[in-house]
Amino acid sequence: MDLTEPEPAGTDLTEADLTETGLTQTGGYRQLLEHISETYTAGRVRAVQAVNAQLVETYWQVGRHIVEFEQGGSLRAGYGRALINQLATDLGLLHGKGFSRSNLIYMRLLYLRYPISETPSHLLTWSHYLELLKLDDPLERGFYEKQAIAERWSVAELKRQKASSLFLRLAAAKDRAGVLQLSAQGQLLEQPADLLRDPYVFEFLKIPEPCQISESELETRLCDHLQPFLLELGKGFTFVGRQYRVTINNTHYRVDLVFYHRILRCFVLIDLKLGEVQHQDIGQMNLYLGYFAKEENVEGDNPPVGIILSRNKDELLVEYATYGMNSQLFVRKYQLYLPDREALKAEIERTLAEVGQ
User: Fold this and answer.
1) Rounded CA gap, 208 and 336, in Å?
2) Is residue 194 part of a domain?
3) Is residue 10 part of a domain?
4) CB neighbours (10 Å) of residue 144?
5) Can you give the residue range of the structural domain that contains 272?
6) Under a CB-based contact definition with an 8 Å cutoff, are residues 111 and 129 in contact?
7) Same domain for 204 and 174
8) Are residues 331 and 208 in the same domain?
9) What does the pLDDT profile of the chain (357 residues) look like in tens digits?
10) Is the domain of 142 the same as that of 91?
C-alpha cells in the first residue's frame, strides 16, 4: 500500500511541462519569476543587515556591562587587564571564540567611544567598527564612519582609505570650520571643487621605486586597477573611456581618461602627466572642455570638469596659465606611494589650533 501523501492537484508541473505549455514564454510568468527573485534577494539583504545590526548592538551592550562593572567600584585599579583575560577565558568556554581577549577589548572601546547619545550605525558591520575603533582621533573616526555609510564601503575599501590618509588629505586644504564639517558630515559633493583631492594616491598600482614608467603605461595600469582607482576618485564616478578621441577641423586629439559624474551630472576629463605640468597642457585641457561642452553635453548636463594630474606642479605657472580661464579646470598632484601621515596630521592640528578661525 502506498502511504505517501499525494501531491496537491496542479503542483507537479515539470520544466518540460512548462515549456510545452508555453508558460515560460509568457510575459506574466517572467514577471512573476522576477518579482519572486527580487523579493527573495531583498529579504536576504534585510536579514543580513538585521543580523549585523543586532550583533553590533549586542557587542555595545557587552562593552557597557564591562565598563559599568569597572566604574561601579567592583574592580581595584590596575586589574582591568585581569578582568578582560578572565572574561575571555570564561566566556570562551561558554560561547566560543567570539569572546576572544581582543574582541572584548574592542567591545569595551565601542561603548566608550559611542555613548548612548552617539550609538553606532546599524548600516556598518562589526568588522567596520573594528577598523574605526583603531582611530584615536574622534574627528578622523567620525569622517570615516560617515563616508563608509554614504559610499557603502566594504571593509577592504575602508582599510584602504584609512591607509591612504583620505581624511587628512581632504582636511589639509580646509580651514577650522571646514575640518569640523568634514568630520561631522563626510565629504559633500555640491560643486566641482568638492571632487578634488590633493594629492591623489595611487599606491594600489604597486609601482616600485624608482618609478620608470611612461604616461601610457600609467594610464594602462590605472585602467587595469579600475575599482581602486574609482575608489580613490570618490563617490559618483562612472568610467566612459580612455584615449577618448576629440576631432576638431580634421585634427585628432585624445583625452587620457573620461568619466561621467552621476551626482554633479557632468563629464570629468583627466589628463596624466609624468613630470611637471606645462602651460600648453593647461591650454589643451581647456580645449577639451570647450569641445565637450559644445559637442558631447546633452540637455541636463552641467559644464565639464577638467583635472590635470601631474607628479609635480609649479604653483605660480599654474596661476598665470589659468588666469581668466575656465573655473572648471584644476591641476592636482598625484603620488605613487602613501603620503606622510604625520606631516598631514601636524598641518591639520595647526589649522584646528588657530584662534578665531
Assistant:
1) 9
2) no
3) no
4) 21
5) 200-338
6) no
7) no
8) yes
9) 444 444 444 445 455 555 555 665 666 788 888 888 988 888 887 887 788 888 999 999 999 999 988 887 655 555 667 889 999 999 999 998 889 999 999 999 999 999 876 778 888 999 999 999 999 999 999 999 999 999 999 999 999 999 999 999 999 989 999 999 999 999 989 999 999 998 999 999 998 877 778 999 999 999 999 999 999 999 999 999 999 999 999 999 999 999 999 999 999 999 999 989 999 999 999 999 999 999 999 999 999 999 999 998 899 999 999 998 878 999 999 999 998 999 999 989 999 987 544
10) no
